[in-house]
Q: What sequence folds into this?
């Protein structure tokens, strides 16, 4: 099983810090799970123009392939102007819906106001619903105050939510995989 963490921004580093924290927690408790971090700032991704995803080349093709072949996801974004980043929205637009169908997603958001956590409920979960993905019931929202001056996540309650999210996505993925196996053998 492969868990892909996505840092859905081309600027800043707080989402990457929290996504990496979840991936580290999963790896520590489930060494059999392969984890990978996809940081959008490391790639030169084209804007989606409506063509078949298989026709993209270069970094765009590489990113589409990385996302499409993962088994489940931790997706993080900063909240800008009350919304997810354009870079993350573009990534969602590039992926064919069938490639995310029936896969587990866990969400992380970071922001400068305490109300921005609502973006997870009002934007990210509906996008997952469109893809017919399974969404972990918990999520992690980290305010700027939850980080140290060195950009480390230090808030105890947020760290507890990181642990809870890491456990939820693994539990859901294992249950989904077991149910698929049971269906195939019956």
A:
């Amino acid at each position: 099983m492969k868990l892909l963490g996505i840092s859905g921004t081309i600027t800043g580093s707080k989402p990457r810090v929290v996504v990496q924290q979840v991936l580290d927690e999963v790896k520590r408790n489930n060494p059999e799970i392969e984890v990978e971090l996809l940081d959008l700032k490391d790639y030169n991704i084209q804007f989606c123009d409506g063509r078949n995803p298989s026709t993209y080349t270069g970094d765009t093709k590489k990113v589409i392939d990385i996302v499409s072949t993962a088994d489940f996801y931790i997706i993080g974004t900063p909240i800008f102007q009350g919304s997810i980043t354009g870079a993350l929205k573009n990534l969602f637009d590039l992926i064919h819906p069938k490639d995310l169908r029936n896969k587990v997603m866990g969400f992380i958001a970071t922001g400068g106001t305490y109300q921005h956590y609502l973006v997870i409920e009002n934007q990210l979960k509906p996008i997952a619903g469109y893809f017919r993905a399974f969404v972990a019931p918990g999520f992690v929202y980290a305010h700027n105050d939850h980080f140290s001056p060195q950009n480390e996540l230090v808030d105890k309650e947020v760290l507890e939510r990181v642990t809870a999210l890491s456990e939820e996505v693994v539990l859901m993925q294992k249950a989904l995989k077991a149910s698929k196996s049971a269906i195939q053998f019956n």
